[in-house]
Amino acid sequence: MDNQYDEASASGYSRAARILLVGWGVLCCAWNAYGAAQIASGRPALGPTATFAGAGVALVLAILFVVTFNRWPRVYKTLAILAALLAVVTIWNAFMLDPSLWISEAWRWAGVLLNAIGAIAATTAVVASSHEAKGS
């Protein structure tokens, strides 16, 4: 009975992590696209690293999280690890780069929060998928 509960919990965590990862990817896409558009129109971006390429990468990651989840668990897990690393590096940059690179302190913290959610979701996805693989 305990094993069934553990499997159900892992499945619930895995589903929540996937939803958060997809949301993180979509929001990162929006952040980057908006920032790149701001730069293109001569206005400051929300943060220092906004590019259309970054928006594309974030959108592709979000799509791949959906596509690979059931079909290719190892690819999904690898992408989640990549997402965690990207999110952690972005958080690190928020504290290491000059704060004046963001349009305001609030937007710097918004980026930290967004990427903290991404890092936690990605880590949860990796742990839950590892647990599910052991249960299979």
Map the helices and strands.
Layout: H1 2-40, H2 52-71, H3 73-96, H4 105-135
Helix pairs in contact: 1-2, 1-4, 2-3, 3-4
Plain-language structure description:
- There is one protein chain.
- The chain is built from four helices and no strands.
- With about 140 residues, the protein is mainly alpha-helical.
- Helix 1 packs antiparallel against helix 2.
- The radius of gyration is 17 Å and the shape is elongated.
- The protein starts with a helix and ends with a helix.
- Residues about 1-10 have low confidence and may be disordered.
Distance between the termini: 16 Å
What's the pLDDT, averaged over the residues?
88
Helix content: over 70%
Helix count equals 4
Output the structural class.
Answer: mainly alpha
Annotation, overall tally of beta strands: 0
Unreliable residue runs: 1-8
Task: Sum up the overall morphology in one term.
Answer: elongated
Radius of gyration: 17 Å
User: In percent terms, what proportion of residues is strand?
Assistant: under 5%
Question: What's the SSE pattern?
Answer: HHHH
**Mind summarizing the main beta sheet?**
none
Structure in a nutshell:
This protein is an all-alpha fold and 136 residues long. The protein is built from four helices and no strands. The two termini are 16 Å apart.
Features:
136 residues, mainly alpha, 0% strand, disordered N terminus
